[in-house]
Amino acid sequence: MDTSNNFILEMSVNDLDSIKPILETEFDDFWNFSILKSELENANSNYFVLKSEGEILGFAGILIVLGEAEITNIVVRKNCRGNGLSKLLLQYLVDYCSHNNISKIHLEVNASNLVAINLYKLFGFKKVGLRKNYYKNNDALLLAKDLINI
Ligand SMILES: CC(C)(COP(=O)(O)OP(=O)(O)OC[C@H]1O[C@@H](n2cnc3c(N)ncnc32)[C@H](O)[C@@H]1OP(=O)(O)O)[C@@H](O)C(=O)NCCC(=O)NCCS
Q: Of all atoms in ligand 1, which is nearest to the CA of residue 30?
């Protein structure tokens, strides 16, 4: 996969509309259109899309509250996974937080989601807690990373 033409920018309502028909089949089934639409309308949320030649290959969001950020999701289009795209998105979020004086990034991830856990570990996120039965069939790991602001 040629990743040289990728770029990341803020998600617009048009972006979201353009992926509406494929959101649940080609991205994932737990972030539906109406949740994402309300996220885009939330002044504390920041969503970004990764595009290549006008096509959205992934997106990611953070919620900023009291100087700390929560990653609400990172998702890569199913047929584009395994090409390092989530690393580009996560690096973008970390840089965005550093530039906006965020002191800490945290998130919840399904304890069975080993791919995502590997991704976050790669970026220095550490386990700081566990929420028993947070998901239907599983626990949530709470991960966090302290930032050194620039
Ligand atoms: C998690 C997700 C975003 C990863 O996206 P991706 O673009 O395929 O991941 P990348 O190719 O950038 O790989 C990033 C790291 O994840 C880990 N990883 C990727 N694929 C993996 C696999 N099949 N098995 C184990 N670890 C894997 C590796 O550590 C990899 O880094 P490395 O290649 O340097 O070793 C993607 O699987 C996805 O969209 N999942 C559904 C949504 C989700 O669960 N999001 C996370 C919860 S917020």
A: 42
Binding site membership of 106 for ligand 1 (Cβ less than 6 Å): no
Say how far apart CA 39 and CA 82 lie, in whole Å: 27
b/e burial code for range 74-108 (CB count within 10 A of at least 16 → b): bbbbeebeebebbebbbebbbebbeeeebeebbbb
For residue 137, the 8-state DSSP code is S
pLDDT tens-digit readout, 12-45? 999 999 999 999 899 986 678 999 999 999 999 9
55 is catalytic: no
DSSP 17-69: HHHGGGIIIII-SSS-HHHHHHHHH-TTEEEEEEEETTEEEEEEEEEEETTEE
| Cβ 76 under 6 angstroms from ligand 1 | yes
**What pTM value is reported for the model?**
0.96
Atom of ligand 1 lying closest to residue 78 CA: 39
Domains located in the chain, CATH noted: 6-146 (3.40.630.30)
83 lines ligand 1 (CB under 6 A): yes
